[in-house]
Specification:
GO terms for molecular function: ATP binding; phosphorelay sensor kinase activity. It catalyses: ATP + protein L-histidine = ADP + protein N-phospho-L-histidine. The protein has 525 residues and is an alpha+beta fold. It has 4 domains: 8-184, no CATH class; 202-253, no CATH class; 281-372; 375-520, Histidine kinase-like ATPase, C-terminal domain (Heat Shock Protein 90). The chain is built from 10 helices and 16 strands. It has a 5-stranded antiparallel beta sheet with strand order 2-1-5-4-3. Helix 1 runs antiparallel to helix 4 (190-198), helix 3 packs parallel to helix 4 (190-198) and helix 9 packs antiparallel against helix 10. It starts with 7 loop residues before the first helix and ends in a 5-residue tail after the last strand.
Length: 525
Amino acid sequence: MAPATQPTSDISLGHGTHHHRFYRRANIFVVGVLILLTLIYFVWQVQSSSRTFQEQVNHQSSLLAEMLLLNTRASLMTEEVLTDSAELFLSNMAEFIVYLDAVEPFSAAELTAFSQEAGLAGIRIEHGEAVVEGPPGWWPEQHRMQHSYFDYDPAAELFLLVRGNGRDEARVAVGFAADYMKILEEQSGLNAMLKALRSLPTIRDVQIHGDADLSSLMDDSQIRVDFVAATQEVHSTISLGDGSLEIQQEATHYFAHIQQLWREFFIFSLAIATIGALFTWMLNRLHQRHVATIRAAERTLAKQHEDATIGRAAATISHEIKNPLNAISMGLQRLQIESPQLPKDQADLISSMLKAVERTNGIISELKQYAHLPVPNKRPVNVEDIISDLLTLYRRTLEEQSIQCHFNCTNIFTVDADPDMLSQALENLLKNAIEAQPGSGFIDIQLSQQHHFATVVVENGGLETDPQQIHTLLDPYVTSKATGTGLGLPIVRRIVEAHKGTLSLTSPNPNTLRVTMNLPLNDHT
C-alpha cells in the first residue's frame, strides 16, 4: 500500500499557523522594545531635568550667598565710614570746646545750649574734681573718663569721645546720637537682607545655621541639594566655615514638569500598547481569514473530489446497469402482454418487479442529475406561477393524503433563473414535504421579499431527524425515509447555489421542518 500523503491544505494551514506565531511574537517583541525605549528616554529626560534644575539651584544659591556677602561687606564698610566720620566730628568738636573753655569756662546752661546748637547729645567737662555738663544726666554712668578714647554705646545709641588728661588741661567728653546706626542696621543689615530674600517669589525661606562665615564663600563651595516632594521645595545648603546657609526654594514647576513627563510616558506607553494590541488583533483576523480561506478551499477540493467520484460512479452505473435494467423492463413488459392468463400471484410478482426496475431507474437518473448538473439558462421567471402550477399538479395527491396546503404570496417576484431547474428544485421540496407525511399533515408555503432576494419558505410536519443534525439532510445520501435516495435536497441545494442563492434548514417546532430558499431578484423587480 502506498504511504498516505498529507493534504496540501493541511500543509498550508500548518505553515500559516507557524507564520502567525512568528508574526505575533515579532509584534510583541517590537511593542516591548518600543516601551523599553520609551522608558529609557523618560529616565533620561527625568535625569536631564533634575540635573539642569539642580545646576540652576546651585547657581541661584551661589548668587544669593554672594548677595548676602556683598551686602554684609557693604554694611560693614558703611558702618566703618560712619564711625570714622563720627569720630572725626566729635574730635574736632572736643578741641573746639577745650579752646573755648580755656578762654572762659562754660556753665552747665551754656553747655546745654551749645550742645543743642551743635547737634550733640551732650558735653561734659572735668577740671580735677569740678564737673560741668549739659544737659544734665546725659552721660552714661557705666562709662569712665579716665583716659582718652572713642566708643559706640549701642544701649544708649551714642558715639562717645573723651579728650584731655584732666591735670594740666580740662578733660572733655562729647556725645553724638547714633539713631541712624540703628536705622542702617535695620535697613541694610544681615537680618534685613534675609527678610528681603524671603519675600522673593521663589524663595520660601533663608536661614543661617551655626557660626556661618560668609567671607569663606568660594566659587567651589560645596552645595547640597535636597528635593522635598511633600512640600514641592528644594533645599540647598552651603557650608560656610563652622556654619551653613540654607536656602529653601519653591520647586513647583520642577515637580509639575516631572509629573508631565510621567503622564506623557504613560500616555505614550498606552498608545504603543494599544497599537500593538490593534496589530495583534489584525494579525489574528488575517490568520483567521487565512485559515477560513484554506478550509474553504479544502471543502471545495473535497466537494470537487466527491463530485468527480460521483460523476465516475454515475457514468459507470448508467453504462453498466441501466442497459440491463432496460432489457429486464422490456422482458417483464413482454411477459405481461404475451401471458395474460398467468396466475395472479405470478402477475403480481411481475408488476412488483417492474416497479422495482422503475425505482432503480429513478435512482440512477437522480444520481446522474446530481453528478452532472447543467449550467442554468437564466431568464426572468415568475416564482409564483411555478409554485401555483406545481400545486395544481399535486392537488389530487394532497387530497388523497389529507394534507392541508396553504400558499401565501405578498407580491409578484421575478428572478433570473432557469425555469426547468427552478421548477425541479421547488417540485423536489414539495415531494419531500408530501412523502414525509404519508397519512396526513400540513404544508405552508410563503413567498416574500427579503432585501434583494425572493424568499421561498416551505414548512411541513413529519420531521424525524434530530434538530441538532438537521443540516446533514443537505449532504448526499442522507435521508430519514426508508425508500429515499438522499439526493432530493442536495439536488435542490446545488440548483439554488448555481443560481447564486442560499438554502437553509431549520426546525421552528417539534417534528416540523422549515426549508428557506433565497434567490436573487431580477434587476427590474
